[in-house]
Description:
mainly alpha, about 0% strand, Core-binding (CB) domain-containing protein
Amino acid sequence: MTEFELQLDNFMLYCSSKNLSTKTLKSYDQTLNLSLLYMRETYQVEEAGKVKVVQNWQLSI
């Protein structure tokens, strides 16, 4: 298990402890795992600490 997967598991445990609905937990799990797969395949990211948060961006159409 990678460090990233461990962080995702910890987050899911936190969500479970907050008594979120089963549907919400499944949705979070699917979305986060797809995001992890995308980051692995596209950017070869295996560590959560290597992901940088970009703030204050806007999309102009």
